[in-house]
Amino acid sequence: MTAIHLATRDDLPRLTETLARAFHDDPVGTHLQGGRYHHRRARMGFEMLGRNMLDHGRVLRTGGFEAAALWARPGHWRMPVGSIVRTLHLSLGAYRTGIFRALAWLSRVEKVHPAEPHYYLEVLGTDPTHQGQGWGSRLVPPMLDVADDERVGAYLESMKQSNVPYYRRFGFEVVREITHPTAPPVWTMWRDPR
């Protein structure tokens, strides 16, 4: 079994490649990119998220970069303005003229983000060549153990209804389905500490 590693800045190129490959069929990501998936642009988006989460959360990866997870610490799920400015070139590269569509979607999702302290699983992805082998599942329990030790919840948004049963295995339950007039639905999920 491969070890779980805390990612570093040096890991970003391989980590963003893993996540870009993992999300090749993500309906929300495809929508935000204008209806067609662009691998290079997705890498830019995940680099932006990864850089920010390295500063304000925990980024986990498997030993061979089969899977990666971006977790925000309690009270740090909202990206600081300074981080937004530093990574703006990546956001603009990822979304281009669709940046306003992405901001509208993000605003709708952020309105229902829980206020109580929690660890936020912003991204979990496994390279398609390794999916179904348990790589991603290794990146969830370590942070849930931390949340349990700190007596705080855990939260995520599932971009695919088919992933809801997967997250239920870890104790997450659907809180609501977010609909948007022009975007695919999203399922918010919460897990109480144990």
CATH homologous superfamily assignment: Gcn5-related N-acetyltransferase (GNAT)
Outline the biggest β-sheet: 7 strands, mixed
Structural class: alpha+beta
By CATH reckoning, the class would read Alpha Beta
CATH-assigned fold name: Aminopeptidase
Question: What oligomeric state do these chains adopt?
Answer: single chain
Q: Kindly report the spatial arrangement of strands forming the biggest sheet.
A: 1-2-3-4-5-7-6
Helix coverage percent: 25-40%
Strand-residue proportion: 15-25%
What low-confidence regions span 5 or more consecutive residues with pLDDT below 50?
none
User: Any idea what the radius of gyration is?
Assistant: 16 Å
The gross shape turns out to be: globular
Q: Span between N and C termini?
A: 26 Å
The number of E-state strands comes to 7
Q: Overall mean pLDDT score?
A: 89
Q: How many domains, as an integer?
A: 1
CATH 2nd-level architecture? 3-Layer(aba) Sandwich
How many helix segments? Answer: 8
Question: What's the helix-strand series?
Answer: EHHHEEHHHEHEHEE
